[in-house]
Protein backbone atom coordinates (compact mmCIF):
# COMPACT_ATOMS: atom_id res chain seq x y z
CA UNK A 1 0.00 0.00 0.00
CA UNK A 2 1.46 3.35 -0.94
CA UNK A 3 1.10 6.29 1.41
CA UNK A 4 0.16 9.72 0.18
CA UNK A 5 0.89 13.00 1.92
CA UNK A 6 -2.32 12.91 3.99
CA UNK A 7 -1.60 9.37 5.22
CA UNK A 8 1.88 10.49 6.27
CA UNK A 9 0.52 13.53 8.14
CA UNK A 10 -2.02 11.33 9.94
CA UNK A 11 0.65 8.81 10.93
CA UNK A 12 2.95 11.57 12.14
CA UNK A 13 0.26 13.08 14.37
CA UNK A 14 -0.90 9.73 15.75
CA UNK A 15 2.66 8.84 16.70
CA UNK A 16 2.83 12.06 18.71
CA UNK A 17 -0.60 11.67 20.35
CA UNK A 18 -2.82 8.70 19.61
CA UNK A 19 -5.48 9.95 22.03
CA UNK A 20 -6.52 12.79 19.72
CA UNK A 21 -10.20 12.86 18.84
CA UNK A 22 -10.94 12.34 15.16
CA UNK A 23 -12.08 15.97 14.99
CA UNK A 24 -8.79 17.25 16.43
CA UNK A 25 -6.75 14.92 14.23
CA UNK A 26 -8.63 16.07 11.13
CA UNK A 27 -7.97 19.69 12.04
CA UNK A 28 -4.24 19.07 12.56
CA UNK A 29 -3.80 17.24 9.25
CA UNK A 30 -6.07 19.60 7.28
CA UNK A 31 -8.69 17.05 6.24
CA UNK A 32 -12.39 16.59 6.85
CA UNK A 33 -13.30 14.40 9.85
CA UNK A 34 -14.97 11.83 7.55
CA UNK A 35 -11.90 11.56 5.32
CA UNK A 36 -9.62 11.37 8.33
CA UNK A 37 -11.67 8.57 9.91
CA UNK A 38 -11.70 6.58 6.65
CA UNK A 39 -7.93 6.96 6.31
CA UNK A 40 -7.22 5.91 9.91
CA UNK A 41 -9.46 2.86 9.52
CA UNK A 42 -7.66 1.92 6.29
CA UNK A 43 -4.25 2.34 7.97
CA UNK A 44 -5.37 0.06 10.82
CA UNK A 45 -6.91 -2.54 8.50
CA UNK A 46 -3.78 -2.65 6.33
CA UNK A 47 -1.57 -3.23 9.37
CA UNK A 48 0.43 -0.01 8.97
CA UNK A 49 -0.94 1.02 12.36
CA UNK A 50 0.01 -2.17 14.17
CA UNK A 51 -1.30 -1.31 17.65
CA UNK A 52 -2.64 1.63 19.61
CA UNK A 53 -1.28 1.63 23.17
CA UNK A 54 -0.50 3.79 26.18
CA UNK A 55 3.21 4.11 26.94
CA UNK A 56 3.81 3.98 30.68
CA UNK A 57 6.64 5.41 32.77
CA UNK A 58 8.20 2.15 34.07
CA UNK A 59 9.65 3.70 37.22
CA UNK A 60 6.20 4.96 38.24
CA UNK A 61 4.56 1.54 37.99
CA UNK A 62 7.19 -0.54 39.79
CA UNK A 63 9.29 -1.65 36.82
CA UNK A 64 12.30 0.60 37.23
CA UNK A 65 15.15 -1.69 36.15
CA UNK A 66 15.98 -1.94 32.45
CA UNK A 67 18.32 -4.70 31.31
CA UNK A 68 19.81 -5.03 27.85
CA UNK A 69 20.73 -8.68 27.44
CA UNK A 70 22.76 -10.49 24.81
CA UNK A 71 22.01 -14.19 24.40
CA UNK A 72 24.09 -16.72 22.50
CA UNK A 73 22.67 -20.19 21.90
CA UNK A 74 24.60 -23.43 21.51
CA UNK A 75 22.54 -24.51 18.51
CA UNK A 76 21.40 -21.93 15.93
CA UNK A 77 19.31 -24.11 13.63
CA UNK A 78 16.10 -22.36 12.66
CA UNK A 79 13.88 -24.52 14.88
CA UNK A 80 16.06 -23.73 17.93
CA UNK A 81 15.92 -19.98 17.25
CA UNK A 82 12.15 -20.05 16.76
CA UNK A 83 11.63 -22.13 19.92
CA UNK A 84 13.68 -19.66 21.96
CA UNK A 85 11.78 -16.71 20.48
CA UNK A 86 8.50 -18.38 21.43
CA UNK A 87 9.72 -18.82 25.00
CA UNK A 88 10.67 -15.14 25.18
CA UNK A 89 7.37 -14.02 23.62
CA UNK A 90 5.49 -15.49 26.59
CA UNK A 91 7.39 -13.35 29.11
CA UNK A 92 5.85 -9.88 29.59
CA UNK A 93 9.08 -8.47 31.08
CA UNK A 94 10.83 -9.11 27.75
CA UNK A 95 9.70 -5.98 25.96
CA UNK A 96 11.80 -6.29 22.84
CA UNK A 97 13.56 -9.22 21.22
CA UNK A 98 15.91 -8.85 18.27
CA UNK A 99 17.59 -11.69 16.39
CA UNK A 100 20.96 -10.17 15.45
CA UNK A 101 24.08 -10.92 13.46
CA UNK A 102 27.03 -10.99 13.87
CA UNK A 103 27.75 -11.53 17.54
CA UNK A 104 25.13 -12.89 19.89
CA UNK A 105 22.00 -14.56 18.55
CA UNK A 106 19.56 -12.27 20.38
CA UNK A 107 19.48 -8.87 22.03
CA UNK A 108 16.65 -8.34 24.52
CA UNK A 109 15.26 -5.31 26.29
CA UNK A 110 13.88 -6.39 29.65
CA UNK A 111 11.92 -4.25 32.12
CA UNK A 112 11.57 -5.54 35.70
CA UNK A 113 11.05 -4.15 39.20
CA UNK A 114 14.55 -4.67 40.57
CA UNK A 115 17.65 -6.87 40.54
CA UNK A 116 15.88 -9.67 42.44
CA UNK A 117 13.18 -9.76 39.76
CA UNK A 118 15.84 -9.81 37.04
CA UNK A 119 17.66 -12.66 38.76
CA UNK A 120 14.44 -14.71 38.96
CA UNK A 121 13.68 -14.04 35.29
CA UNK A 122 17.24 -14.85 34.21
CA UNK A 123 17.14 -18.12 36.12
CA UNK A 124 13.74 -19.05 34.65
CA UNK A 125 14.56 -18.13 31.03
CA UNK A 126 18.30 -18.54 30.66
CA UNK A 127 19.95 -20.63 33.39
CA UNK A 128 17.51 -23.53 33.10
CA UNK A 129 17.43 -23.50 29.28
CA UNK A 130 19.79 -26.17 27.92
CA UNK A 131 20.45 -24.37 24.63
CA UNK A 132 21.66 -21.07 26.18
CA UNK A 133 25.46 -20.88 25.94
CA UNK A 134 26.13 -17.32 27.06
CA UNK A 135 24.23 -14.44 28.68
CA UNK A 136 25.67 -10.95 28.87
CA UNK A 137 23.58 -8.38 30.74
CA UNK A 138 23.85 -4.60 30.89
CA UNK A 139 21.80 -2.51 33.31
CA UNK A 140 20.63 0.98 32.48
CA UNK A 141 21.67 3.66 34.95
CA UNK A 142 20.00 6.42 32.97
CA UNK A 143 17.75 6.62 29.92
CA UNK A 144 18.55 9.76 27.98
CA UNK A 145 16.26 9.02 25.04
CA UNK A 146 13.26 6.80 24.41
CA UNK A 147 11.15 7.20 21.30
CA UNK A 148 8.48 5.13 19.65
CA UNK A 149 8.08 7.17 16.47
CA UNK A 150 9.03 5.69 13.11
CA UNK A 151 10.11 7.95 10.26
CA UNK A 152 7.43 7.74 7.58
CA UNK A 153 8.85 8.15 4.08
From TrEMBL:
Descriptive protein name: Lrp/AsnC family transcriptional regulator
List keywords of the entry alphabetically: DNA-binding, Transcription, Transcription regulation
PROSITE patterns, per this entry?
HTH_ASNC_2
Residue ranges of every copy of the HTH asnC-type domain listed in the record: 3-66
Gene3D superfamilies in the cross-refs: 3.30.70.920, Winged helix-like DNA-binding domain superfamily/Winged helix DNA-binding domain (1.10.10.10)
Could you name the domain of life of the organism this protein comes from? Bacteria
Please name the Pfam families in this protein's record. Answer: AsnC_trans_reg, HTH_24
**Which chain positions lie within coiled-coil regions?**
none
Q: Which SUPFAM superfamilies match?
A: Dimeric alpha+beta barrel (SSF54909), Winged helix' DNA-binding domain (SSF46785)
Amino acid sequence: MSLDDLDKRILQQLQIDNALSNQDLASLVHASPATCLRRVNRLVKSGIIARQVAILAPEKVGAGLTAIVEITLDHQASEHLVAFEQLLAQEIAVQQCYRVSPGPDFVLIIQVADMAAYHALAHRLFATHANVRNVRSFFSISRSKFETQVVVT
